[in-house]
Amino acid sequence: MRIVLLVMVATSVLLGPPPVQAQGRRQPPQVEQPQDEQPQDEQAVPSRKRRQGQGQGQGHGRRQGQGAGQEGQEQAPSTPAQGQAGGQPDSQPSVPPKSPPTGQAGSQGRPIRVLVEQANAAFQAGRYLEAEPLYRQVLEMREQKRGDESFPVVPVMNRLGLCLAEQGKYPEAEALFRRALATAEQLSGGEHATVAMSLHNLGYALRRQGRMAEAEPILRRALAMRERVLGPEHPDVASTLVNLTQAIGITRRPAETEPMLRRALAIREKAYGPDHPSVAGVNSAIAVLLRNQGRGTDAEALMRRSIAIQEARLGPEHPRLANSLITLGMTQLTLKRYADAEASFRRAAAIRETVFGPNHPDTAQAYGTLAYTLAHQQRAEEALTEIRRATAIHIVRRENDDQRRDEGTESERRSARWLFARHVGIAYLASRGASERIPELSREAFEMQQWAQTGGVSGALTRMAARFATGSGPLAALVRERQDVQARRHALDRGLIEGATRPTAERDRAQENAMRAEIVALDRRLDALDARLAGEFPRFEELSSAQPLPMAKARELLARDEAMLVYLVRDDDAFLWIVRKDRVFWRRLAHDRKSLDEAVKGLRAWLDPTLNRALAPMPLVAAHKLYNDILPGADEALQGINRLLVVPDGPLQSLPFGVLVTSPPQGEANDAAQYAAAPWLVRKYAITVLPSVASLKALRVVAGRDATREPFVGYGDPELRGSGTGGRGAPAPRMDQGIADVAAVQGLEPLPESATELREMAKGFHATAGTVFLGRAATERAVKSANLARYRVVAFATHGLMAGEFGDNSEPALVLTPPAVGTPEDDGLLMASEVAQLKLDADWVILSACNTAAPDGTPGAEGMSGLAKAFFYAGARSLLVSHWAVASDAAVRLTTGAVAAMDRQPGIGRAEALRRSMLALLDDKAMAHPMFWAPFVLVGEGGTGR
Predict the structure, then answer these.
(1) Residue 456: closest CA among 495, 411, 416
(2) Are 710 and 770 in contact (CB under 8 A)?
(3) How far apart are the first and last CA of the chain?
(4) In 509-523, which positions are buried (b, 16+ CB within 10 angstroms) versus exposed (e)?
(5) Angle separating helix axes 296-314 and 319-334, nearest 10 degrees
């Protein structure tokens, strides 16, 4: 939003030993849930004629003592926003019958029955590696006999999917559950216990990948269907209730989850009695609630009873027992009984390594909790050994998954963040009193920070760099095609998941079948592209993977007057590396995630015109305190430095560092002179934001440039008819099936000053005539049809709309001149997803609009994950983006001032040019308040001569 406002005239040692309080306040590691659910008895439905009301509920009941069920584990949460202070038990997927479905008589009946019995026996004993090939044989035999459009095949798909999921092969399991769901829905018409089972298991697979927002509606549909088809007291209803609480987050919304768990407990106790393993599983979940309520002693007693039941019924080495031991250990941690917690975690780790092997994510989670407990006991070296084992498992998984085609990769990476973050803290603990080891441990922790911070924005930039590493020829086009095909596949995946959440009557079967067929075709195309790239561009996989940048290489890439500030924000503390070409500083910060979030939001409240409409003075004392807190010892560490490259994390992603105050202010600022005299950080340094440490290499080594490109193209001053405050942003128009209401777009306020802005930029870049598109020429269709790869600088001066302002559509967008009738190709809004489809080769994209650094609107999204991420993917090496609503006249002066500074002195670089433009506004009485000069930040490459 560009706004016209009435303005008022107005201690760190070089890699030295950590301080004694290095560990500070500790919280249990962020871990989630064990899973718990009973096997379920699915009767085959041999023909399409069998529908709801024709015996669907028959044959689906459980037999007492039929099987012990499977309990899950506590694991990392999908996002820190869940706020879970410890482990939570979770529910297992739905297990089809132990005996083969009916309708399997014939020459192959006996072999299939024997195989099923052997597979189920192995599965119930937790021997998943043994069960998997048996289920594969059964599936192959049934497909050969009947084809996969038969219910006898659906339960086998589910069983095999469970085996794969329990081995950590979540994408393959998810694919089987999707296939089972599609087949069951096609044959049943959508209302059947087999459909509900497949929905349940699909939700489970999504949840295990950390995709909670997708899992929750799937599980809600499974719950509603089971209640209708099986009845509200059926044990399968309890299974889905428990699983749903894990997707919601047991401790995140306890008022909702506790009644669900109590209901599940009552159902299972009635069905099986109080001493059944499935009852023990629900009690594990309830223990998490008790622990979170401060009733640790009660929680421990409940867990010990659950473990005794499981040991008696399942045996001493069953994986479900390991899950309960993790929950017990987390409870003992809250009671500060560290030796007991250690024993619980060691036993859980031993069971998991025996059952799953040393490279399973659940094994990693057990090592991680053990390491955390050892660190509590100040046994740093032992803790470091265990946490290294844990993070090594996830590093191998990531290296193997870099080119994975499914949607779960990033979710699994986010779920494992707590392990890498814990590794950093334990490495810091190990450095206490061992100054000779500080450089080594700092380097190790620096790489763990990068594994912890892997995100979508840095990934988009890495993919862009991989394309440009090939130049601009056919090979670059091939790389771009592969990335676009994979993005399309992900979009189709999301569409199918969203479709599965809808009631049967609202489903578009033809469209879903078409999407599945397209995914098959895309997979074939990806196979062909991968084969060709392996031959013609063998470095593609290396360059497109998100590998950490070693500290030595980072230092090599820095100029002598540059320093890189690298942050990691954890729930209980934060860390900072100040990396220079000649030395490195590593410090633990006193702030935790919550206090940093409060401090940043506190400053932002004075900077955002939508929150500070009266232009109240910004508190300089608070800005100085935050500076001291997040840049301790800066006077020493930054001596001789002129440029800062900031890699922010967590709440710091929404902080423009230039507004920090570097020395104690002489009172608060009440007029323009005091603002101008304040020691802002921007007065000392040119500041560039990097999405990740590795993006430094992507921008300075990998991403080449074509020097023959034209200098500039700009779009702005859209033809609009509304009235308002003169802001570059507005309430978003209503969306209908992804198309904006063009009348509402036309009703936004005109921005005539943006025409002058773009013409001045074109003049500063010495652009040829015809490269500024205004009014009727500034359309979405014009942008999409242009050869934007011809230009070094691409600029948009217009309204910016944030995610979440679109009703049903949550994408951020830039406003352009709308057509008379909106279409999917042109409705006046250039959405982030449409930006990603553009083909740029831009050194700089200037977004002179509101909130262009904002997240994409998804739950827990990182900063700059919306328009900024899309432009990086499209081919931008640096961006000028805004953190809040932008005053339109200030936006004109900031952008044109930066361009003019580069024109006067071409070698200064974009970050320094922006700094000089900000200082010019700061020294203007009408623009001295940081609300006007501080909203824009330079993201990406902003250095001299680049």
Answers:
(1) 411
(2) no
(3) 30
(4) eeebeebeeebeebe
(5) 160
Among the listed residues 716, 669, 689, the one whose alpha carbon sits nearest the alpha carbon of residue 888: 716
Q: In what order do the strands lie in the sheet with 562-569?
A: 584-589, 574-580, 562-569, 643-647, 686-689, 936-940, 878-882, 844-848, 791-797, 710-716, 772-774
Binned at pLDDT 50, 70 and 90, residue 455 comes out as: low
CA distance 619 to 26: 31
Task: Give residue-wise pLDDT tens across range 685-733.
Answer: 999 999 999 889 888 876 666 666 899 999 999 999 887 554 554 555 5
Across the chain, mean pLDDT equals 83
Tell me how far apart the alpha carbons of residues 736 and 803 are, in angstroms, rounded to a whole number.
16
Rounded Cα distance between 938 and 914, Å, is 8
Least confident of 429-433, 468-472, 618-622, 800-804: 468-472
> Token pair 């006999």 is at which residue?
145
pLDDT band of residue 538 (cuts 50, 70, 90) is confident
Instruction: Work out the number of other CB atoms within 10 angstroms of the CB of residue 221.
Output: 22
Judged against a pLDDT cut of 60, whether residue 147 lies above it is answered with: no
pLDDT digits (tens, 9 = 90+) for 585-606: 999 998 999 999 999 999 999 9
Q: How far is residue 373 from each of residues 65, 87, 724, measured CA to CA in Å?
A: 37, 14, 58
pLDDT band at 9 (very low <50, low <70, confident <90, very high): very low
> In angstroms, rounded to a whole number, what is the distance separating the alpha carbons of residues 86 and 458?
29
| pTM of the shown model | 0.84
> 568, 129, 596, 513: which is closest to 357 by C-alpha?
129
Return the HEC string of 176-245: HHHHHHHHHHHHHCCCCHHHHHHHHHHHHHHHHCCCHHHHHHHHHHHHHHHHHHHCCCCHHHHHHHHHHH
Helix axis angle, 109-124 to 153-166, nearest 10°: 30
Query: For residues 896 and 904, what is the distance between their CA atoms, to the nearest angstrom?
Result: 12
Residue 504 has pLDDT above 90, yes or no: no
- 10 Å CB burial of residue 707 (0-12, 13-18, 19+) is exposed
Q: Compute the distance between CA of residue 941 and CA of residue 705 in angstroms, rounded to an integer.
A: 13
Q: Is pLDDT above 70 for 804?
A: no
- Rg of the chain, C-alpha, whole Å: 29
Q: Is the pLDDT of residue 420 over 60?
A: yes
Closest CA to 672 of 751, 615, 722, 746: 615
Q: Alpha-carbon distance 857 to 456, whole Å?
A: 13
Contact 849, 2 (CB under 8 A): yes
Give the pLDDT confidence of 610-632 residue by residue, as tens digits: 888 888 889 999 999 999 999 99
β-bridge pairing 2-3 and 735-736? unpaired
Q: What is the DSSP letter of 18?
A: P
Q: How far apart are CA 553 and CA 560, in angstroms?
A: 14
Q: How far is CA 854 from the centre of its chain?
A: 15
Report yes or no: 41 and 374 within 8 Å, Cβ to Cβ. Answer: no
Residue 560 DSSP symbol: T
Question: At residue 23, what are phi and psi to the nearest 5 degrees?
Answer: -85, -25
The enclosing H or E element of 589 equals strand 584-589
Kindly report the CA angle at 215 between 213 and 219, in degrees rounded to 5? Answer: 130
Backbone dihedral angles phi then psi of residue 600, each to the nearest 5 degrees: -65, -45
In whole angstroms, give the CA distance from residue 734 to residue 98.
52
CB atoms within 10 A of CB 58: 9
The amino acid at residue 565 is L
Q: Which residues pair with 574 in a beta bridge?
A: 569, 589
Beta carbons within 10 angstroms of residue 821's beta carbon: 9
